[in-house]
Each structure stands twice: as C-alpha cells, then as structure tokens.
C-alpha cells in the first residue's frame, strides 16, 4: 500500500504526463467508482485490446465472440455517470473481437494499434453527428464533412461525411458497420457516416494500422468499425439543440430507439429513428466581412510579385490582408486601355475605381473591396439527416441466430460556393453595347481602335447566389446468421451474411448561368426597328435570347435572368450498387504449449457498379439523359456539353467484382514466469478483381507481455492494398481544348480527353509499426499509456497526369502512356487521354500516443473522481511523389494548407461524482508552414522555381480550442447535458490563396466559432 504522500507523488507524475497527451477515447473499465456506483459491462481497453469486465458482472459464456454484452438500463445509467477504466482483475476467459483482428481468443492481445470509443465517450462529446466527434481524433486527418468543400460545385463530395486516417485520403480508409462493408455514397466508393444508425452504436473501433489482410481493399490507412448493440432492450431517446455565438448554425436532433425480446426472448426486435437538422451559416454575400459579425476575415491573399521584382531578389509571394483584386468590381470594371479603372455604380453611373495602394500583380491593398467574393462562401452547409434502422433476429437455439437488418437513410445539404459569378477581366465588350453609359461609349469609340474593351465583374446584380443541393439516399439490407459450434471438442464461431446496398445521389445546382447564353445576353444592341435592346446574335435571338445589363447596380429583368440561369440548372443522378456475400469462422485449432492456437478464416464475394447521368447542357446534347425533357434543345449551346459556369456533370458507368479469401492465425509461443508471454499473429488474404487482376495482402505481428510490471511490446508489418475504384476505372469522358509542346518544342493544339483508365492496378502499401504499452502497473492501477511508431509506404499510387506530362513521358519511352497520346495527326485530330496511372507514391511516418489515468478524490476528502485521457499524433513525414519526370517529392507534414499538421492532440479532464459530470477538453494543432516546398526570404531571394517558390513569410500559427461539457441525472433514466465547443471563440487562422477565395482550411482549423448545445437523454 502506498502512503497518502506516495499516492500524491504518483498522481502528480502521471498527471504531468497526461497533460501532454490525453483524450476521451479509452473505452475502459474499473470495478466501481469512488462512490460505489457499479460501472458499465465489458468494454474494450484500447491499450491492451482485451475485454475488461467487472467482477460477477458477466459470465464468460454470456459474451458472444463478436460483441460484448449489451448494457442493461442500470449499468447504462452508471456508465453515463462514471468514465470507464480497465479492471485490475479482468478475467482472461472473456473473449471479444477488436477490429484490428478477426481473431476472437481468450487472452489474445493483438499487435495492431486500436482505439475504441464507447457510447459514453460520444455522449460526453454531445455532437449532433458521431462524425464530428471522430474527426477530432489525432489519427484522423483529411476527413470531409459539412464544413469542407463548401467552395465546390462539381466535386460530388459536398456534404459527404467520410473519414480519412493518416492524411492518406478517404479512399484509403475502410469504414465498416458491424464489420461489414457499406455501399459507397460516391463513385469513389467512400461511405457516408451520416447514413449510419448512430443511436444504437455502442462502440467505434479505430484501427490505426493497415488491416487489408483482415478486411480487404482500402484499409491502407486503417479501419473505422461502427459496432451496434445487436440485442438492445428497452427504450432510449435523445433530444438536443444548438446555436453559435453568432446566432447561426442552429441545430436540432431527435433520436429514439426501442428493443424487445419476444417468445421467451428467442425473437428480438430493435428499431431506431434519427433526425438531425443543422441550418448552416448563410453566405454574407460580397465584401470582406465573414457572416453574422465574424470579424476575422479581412480579405487575405497571396500577392505575386512581377518577374522583374523576383530577378531583383524579391520573394514571389507575400501574404497580405485587405486585398483588392484589380481585374473586377462588384458591378463592372474596365480593365484595359484609356478607360481602365472606370467602374459602374448605381444606375450604371461610371466612377473612378479605388484600387488602393501597393498594387502588385493582381492585388492591391485597401481600396474598393465591395465586390470581393471570398467571404461569401458558406462556412458550413445547411445539413439534414434522416435515418431509420431495424434489426430482427431469431435464436435457433441458445448458441445460434439468424437475423435481418434494414437501413434507410437520407442526407441533404444546401450551400453557396460563392456569390455572383466573377469574370476576371475576360469579357469583351463592344463600344456600341446598348447598356453602356453615353460617356463611356464615346470614350470607347475614341480610345479603342478595335471597338472592343475588356471588362471584369463580380456580377453583383445577380438576384441570387449559386446554391448547390446534394441529396444522398441509402437503402441497405442484410440477411445473416451467426453463432457457435464445436469441432473436435473446440469452440468455433461463425458469421455469414449477404448484403445488398443502393445509394442514389442527386445533385441539383440552382441560380447558375449558362456561359454561352450569358455571353450572348450581355452583347446587346439597339434594334433599329423598335428601338428596344436586343441580343446582337440573330441565332441567339431566334433561340430566345434576352439581353441583360451588367454595367452598374441595375436589377436584371426577370426574362433575362430566366434566359441565362434557367430553373433547371445542372443536375447529376448517380446510382451505386453493392452486393456482398461473406462467411467468417474463428476458433481454436489446438492447445499449444504456451496457450491455445486460434484461427480465423473466411471468404467473400463483392460486386460494385455505378451509373451516372448528367443533364444535357453539362454532359452534352448528344447524350441520353433522364432529364432531357427538362432541357430544351438550344443550337447556341455546345453539343459536347460544359455549357454551365460550373457543375458540368458527365455520364458514365462501370462495374467490377472481386473474390477473396483470408486466413489469420494467433500462435502463443512464449509463456514463462521469467520471460513473460508472447504470441504471433499472422494473416494472408488473396484477392482477384475482374478489372485489376490479382492482389495479395498479408500481416505479420507479435505481442510480448514482458516480465516488467504492466509492460507490453507490440509490432506488426503488413502489406496492404487498395484496388482502383469505379471512378478511377470508368470516369466519364470530358473534353477541353489545350496546347502542348511536341519533341521539337512546337506548340500543338489538342483535345484533352479526361477519362478513366480500366488498366489500373492496385496500390500496394507496406505498413510497419512498433508499440510500447504500459497497462495498469501495480504502482498505478488506474494508469494506461501507449506509444506506437508507424511507417507507411504506398507504391503504385493512382494519380492523374497533365497532358504535357503525358507527352513528355511518351517521348521518354513510356509505352503505357504512349497509348494515351496521339499528337502527330492532321489539325483537329490530335488528342491526349488525361488518365490516372500507377506512377505516384506516398510515404508517411509518425508516432501516436494514448493515455488515461484516474484517481479517487475521496483520498483527499473530496467527492467523486477525476479522469485524464488523451491521444496525440506526431506526423514526422508525409511525402508525396508524383513519380513524373521533372517533378519532385513534396513534404506534407506541417503543411497547414493540407491535412497533416505535425502535432494534433486531444486532451480531456473529467470529474464524475454521483449524478454529476463535468468535462474540459482541449484540442491542439501545432504551428506549421504555408507550404514545406516554399523558400522563406525577405530580400536577396533566389529565383523561384515551379517546385520551390519563394515567399515572404512561410509561418502558419497553430491553434488551441477549449470545450466544456457536463451532465446531470435528474431522475432515474433522465439526464440533462450541455456542451460549449470553442469556449474562447478562437478565430480561425487565415490561409491566403492566389485568388480571393474563402482562404480557410476547415480540415485543420475551426471555422464556425463558439457553439452552444444542450439536450436531454432518457432511457428505461
């Protein structure tokens, strides 16, 4: 026994370590809290990956091999009050599958690092969507959600909540539901977490290591596995609301779940329904102020110096604020010739534009910034999710069940990528334009010999901003059976299922213009017969052209707006199907001298296909479209499509299937009082794709429980794969006109035909990790700590090339690329297929830390207990190599315009006493640079290159966000709670660009500001 003084020293030492790295995320267990409340039933200790159980809570036979026993109402209420910690006397006989392995074996500690978050952790986070809690984990970097891609009209991933581990991208993270694949919500195959049934999720395992050998393709960065409560009994509900400090992004959440057993509990039914609405942050429109009083924007930009300045030693780029673009104004600006600097105001009145000072390149500082468009991008989307889920199971006997699940989910988003439709000095306006003020028309005739001047405009007179409406609808059904049986006296378990999933995505863009119609409509003259303004082009007039006035603050006539921005804007309809049949078995092969030898094995068949249709104006008038009757033929539009200002969706389709089988073994090979215990974990998976051919994934890992008190070592090496997805294989063709240089340096006009590449092969990743785990040593029974080093090298990375790169590679002798190049034919026949190839590589390595510690305040005469928890990730390198001659690898670690800061940490301190809980959380991002490839210099700079530009200041600050939450049990089964995110209302760090864009990086920084939420949970 330690003396009070010794205990105090231990507490101080451990608290100091935990203050560096601590997160709410260890789903762990202790036998009882400081006031004697029983804790939750078994959960997973992510430091040891074993089942922890309170004494006399669960008998080993009551634990299924694929799940832990569900909480009853009493235990669930206790779990909400007290953070779980690992039990000192957890029985080794309990078995549980943690997602880093398919093995379910007594006492097995798997080598792959895995963090498990319990339902209690998510309740404390109090987010409207589990996704918003998960993306705060340090290992998750580069995920997409409703605050990312708000600038995008055409990407197709807007509003898609997808997870990315290690900054390797969402396509290299496998997201599962109960260990099963879910149909993709995009043609890239990534799933939408918002479509998952979240109220019934009792645990989420985050596997921060390659897991392709266990789960198949895409698990290069790792696996995120959502595990539901399959035998939920009772009723529970959650009602919550939220709002920001700025009176926007209002949210409401309603969730309910019910479960009951019938016919002596052989028939079990569980259903849940969820609705969440988040109103988003509306666009403030034009100007340099962010929405609703946010005063941090100030029009940041990267100002580019001239070639002469760079030759004299000036840096190429300099970050400025209060930037004014010189190529356009809100209601029109003449950008060339003697009238340059003439802008148009109310009623079309010309005035001298205020350019500001320090004008270099495209930007000045200060001046008239009323037409700036960067602040007008939504900071977060209007977002609505609806999910209905049911699971029905029938116990054939106490050991075997059959089941069916059904899930319906719909996620809708609405956002504005930018106000108006900026034209940066590229409009050719004739001197006889009927809408030009007389003085300007006269000056044009006198000063422009060609009769044409250049005009730039933000199109501030447009009656509405572009608004994008993605809607994703999922229907998914699973039929399966699981249970256990005996083989030669050994217990084995199985899980076999078949699933069919469909996801339809409809994207509709409204209040957006057709480029050809806009150009016809602004080129207006006076009809000599009637004296009325008409479109100059007779063909356009015959097709219904209506003239519009873009000079000054003059409302567009409704007929003109309907002509250039028809009600049926760009539309895309995508349907993705996924069919899976899988069978998995695991159990004991034999009793070895150091323990039971266990095995998991299985086979799977999967087929995926998609079909996408764009509207005729975007995809091309010659293509069939389900929307053809909504888009009348117009001879003034391009028959090949790409007529819209943005959102030109094209047609495509594709399918593939894969057959695969795997085997995994756990072999204990050491059991000694002197040397401790050790086991070997090996796995192999063979895959055959109908498109990409054969692929193989394997894993070799080991764990060692050393003779040192509480100390374990773990290591794993694996080969992981990612097969090309449907989009990369079968992307629909788009065509643009470009110029390339041939071998003699002569410029040749070509068609750039962007298209998928059906000859792509799988990416291959070598994933190595080594970890040290300190779990509940005798000198600190409530302490857990782990540190893991990882190194991931991905070869044959699928990456697209530019047309000139392909031409150069072909001349260098690369025959694979030459098949996509044809530039020696007659004029008009030359083309380059801009495809993806297996040329690039990725290399990331770093260190993960995880810790948790709790002490009883009763030792000091105070109520309750305090828990410190944390995760931190240090990215040492994140190197991307395009693999193309003339390019150099780039370092992404600490690049604050990307997704991988050098340090990312989440730390929490939680106090629990009886019915009350308070939790303080800190989210930390370390400082970094604008770009690692930039050379920082103030004067005497070297000449910049394309790979290494020079910049005045390359530093980017980090950020600390503090969150505060709490809960109180008002009565049995009734808990009220609150949460304040970004308590200090920390402003986001500005990330300037070479144009006036949103200039934020919501993948790293909080762009919303202080947010208040409160709610009530009930259960009985």
TrEMBL record:
A motif (TonB C-terminal box) lies at residues 1003-1020. It is a multi-pass membrane protein. Residues 484-983 form the TonB-dependent receptor-like beta-barrel domain. It holds the Pfam family Plug. Residues 110-223 form the TonB-dependent receptor plug domain. Its main location: membrane. Keywords: Cell outer membrane, Membrane, Receptor, Signal, TonB box, Transmembrane, Transmembrane beta strand, Transport. It is found in: Cell outer membrane. Residues 1-27 form the signal peptide. One of its GO terms (cellular component) is cell outer membrane. InterPro entries: Beta-barrel_TonB, Beta-barrel_TonB_sf, Plug_dom, Plug_dom_sf, TonB-dep_rcpt-like, TonB_rcpt_CS. Belongs to the TonB-dependent receptor family. This is TonB-dependent receptor-like protein. It comes from Pseudoduganella lurida. The lineage of its organism: Bacteria, Pseudomonadati, Pseudomonadota, Betaproteobacteria, Burkholderiales.
């Amino acid at each position: 026994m330690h003396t009070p003084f010794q205990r105090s020293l231990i507490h101080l030492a451990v608290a100091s370590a935990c203050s560096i790295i601590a997160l709410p995320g260890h789903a762990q267990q202790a036998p009882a809290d400081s006031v004697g409340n029983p804790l939750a039933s078994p959960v997973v200790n992510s430091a040891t990956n074993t089942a922890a159980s309170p004494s006399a809570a669960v008998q080993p036979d009551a634990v299924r091999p694929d799940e832990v026993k569900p909480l009853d109402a009493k235990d669930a209420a206790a779990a909400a009050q007290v953070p779980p910690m690992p039990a000192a006397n957890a029985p080794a006989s309990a078995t549980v599958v943690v997602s880093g392995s398919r093995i379910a074996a007594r006492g097995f500690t798997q080598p792959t690092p895995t963090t498990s978050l319990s339902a209690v952790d998510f309740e404390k986070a109090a987010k409207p969507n589990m996704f918003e809690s998960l993306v705060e984990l340090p290992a998750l970097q580069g995920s997409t959600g409703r605050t990312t891609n708000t600038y995008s009209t055409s990407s197709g991933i807007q509003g898609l909540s997808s997870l990315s581990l290690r900054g390797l991208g969402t396509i290299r993270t496998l997201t599962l539901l109960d260990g099963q694949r879910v149909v993709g919500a995009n043609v890239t195959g990534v799933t939408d977490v918002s479509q998952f049934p979240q109220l019934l999720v009792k645990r989420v395992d985050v596997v921060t290591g390659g897991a392709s050998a266990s789960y198949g393709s895409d698990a290069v960065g790792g696996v995120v596995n959502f595990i539901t409560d399959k035998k939920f009994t009772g009723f529970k509900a959650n009602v919550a609301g939220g709002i920001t400090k700025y009176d926007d992004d209002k949210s409401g959440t309603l969730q309910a779940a019910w479960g009951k057993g019938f016919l002596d509990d052989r028939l079990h039914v569980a259903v849940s329904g969820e609705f969440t609405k988040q109103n988003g942050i509306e666009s403030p429109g034009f100007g340099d102020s962010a929405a609703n009083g946010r005063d941090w924007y100030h029009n940041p930009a990267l100002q580019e110096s001239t070639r002469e300045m760079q030759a004299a030693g000036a840096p190429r780029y300099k970050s400025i604020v209060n930037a004014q673009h010189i190529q356009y104004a809100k209601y029109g600006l003449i950008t060339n010739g003697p009238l340059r600097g003439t802008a148009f105001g109310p009623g079309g009145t010309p005035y001298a534009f205020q350019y500001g000072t320090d004008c270099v390149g495209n930007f000045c500082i200060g001046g008239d910034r009323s037409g700036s468009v960067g602040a007008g991008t939504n900071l977060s989307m209007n977002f609505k999710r609806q999910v209905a889920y049911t699971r029905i199971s029938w116990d054939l006997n106490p050991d075997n069940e059959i089941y069916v699940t059904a899930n319906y989910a719909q996620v809708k988003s609405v956002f504005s990528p930018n106000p108006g439709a900026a034209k940066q000095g590229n409009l050719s306006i004739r001197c006889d334009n009927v809408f030009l003020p007389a003085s300007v028309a006269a000056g044009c005739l006198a000063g422009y010999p060609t009769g044409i001047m250049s005009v730039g405009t933000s199109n501030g007179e447009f009656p509405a901003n572009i608004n994008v409406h993605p809607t994703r609808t999922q229907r998914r059904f699973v039929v399966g059976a699981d249970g256990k049986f005996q083989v030669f006296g050994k217990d084995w378990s199985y899980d076999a299922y078949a699933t069919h999933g469909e996801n339809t995505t409809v994207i509709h863009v409204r209040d957006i213009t057709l480029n050809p119609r806009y150009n016809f409509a602004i080129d207006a003259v006076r009809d000599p017969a009637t004296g009325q303004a008409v479109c100059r082009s007779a063909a356009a007039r015959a097709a219904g052209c209506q003239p519009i006035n873009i000079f000054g603050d003059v409302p567009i006539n409704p007929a003109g707006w309907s002509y250039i921005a028809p009600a049926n804007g760009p539309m895309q309809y995508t349907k993705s199907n996924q069919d899976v049949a899988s069978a998995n078995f695991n159990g004991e092969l034999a009793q070895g001298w150091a323990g039971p030898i266990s095995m998991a094995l299985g086979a799977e068949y999967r087929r995926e296909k998609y079909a996408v249709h764009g509207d005729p104006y975007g995809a091309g008038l010659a293509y069939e479209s389900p929307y053809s009757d909504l888009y009348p033929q117009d001879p003034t539009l391009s028959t090949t499509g790409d007529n819209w200002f943005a959102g030109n969706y094209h047609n495509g389709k594709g399918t593939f299937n894969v057959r695969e089988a795997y085997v995994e073994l756990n072999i204990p090979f050491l059991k000694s009082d002197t040397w401790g215990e050790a086991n070997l974990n090996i796995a192999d998976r063979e895959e055959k794709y109908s498109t990409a051919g054969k692929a193989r994934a394997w894993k070799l890992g080991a764990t060692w429980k050393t003779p040192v008190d509480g100390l374990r070592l773990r290591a794993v090496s694996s080969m992981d794969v990612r097969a090309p997805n449907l989009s990369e294989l079968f992307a629909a063709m788009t065509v643009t006109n470009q110029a390339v240089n041939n071998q003699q340096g002569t410029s040749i006009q070509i068609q750039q035909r962007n298209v998928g590449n059906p000859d792509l092969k799988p990416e291959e990743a070598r994933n190595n990790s080594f970890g040290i785990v300190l779990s509940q040593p005798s000198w600190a029974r409530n302490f857990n700590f782990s540190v893991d080093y990882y190194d991931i090298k991905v070869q044959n990375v699928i990456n697209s090339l530019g047309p000139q790169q392909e031409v150069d590679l072909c001349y260098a002798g690369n025959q694979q690329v030459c098949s996509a190049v044809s530039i020696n034919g007659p004029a008009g026949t030359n083309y380059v297929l801009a495809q993806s190839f297996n040329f690039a590589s990725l290399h990331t390595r770093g260190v993960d830390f995880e810790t948790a510690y709790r002490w009883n305040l009763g030792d000091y005469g105070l109520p309750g207990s305090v828990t410190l928890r944390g995760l931190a990730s240090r990215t040492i390198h994140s190197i991307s190599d395009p693999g193309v001659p003339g390019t150099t690898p780039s370092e992404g670690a600490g690049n604050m315009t990307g997704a991988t800061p050098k340090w990312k940490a989440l730390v929490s301190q939680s106090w629990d006493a009886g019915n009350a809980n308070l939790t303080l959380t800190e989210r930390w991002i370390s400082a970094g640079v604008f770009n690692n490839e930039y050379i920082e210099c103030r004067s005497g700079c070297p000449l910049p290159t394309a790979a290494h530009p020079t910049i005045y200041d390359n530093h980017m600050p980090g950020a600390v966000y503090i969150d505060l939450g709490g809960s109180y049990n008002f009565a049995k089964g009734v808990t009220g709670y609150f949460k304040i995110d970004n308590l200090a209302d920390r402003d986001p760090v500005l990330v300037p660009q070479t144009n006036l864009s949103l200039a934020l990086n919501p993948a790293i920084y909080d762009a919303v500001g202080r947010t208040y939420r409160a709610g009530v949970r009930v259960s009985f």
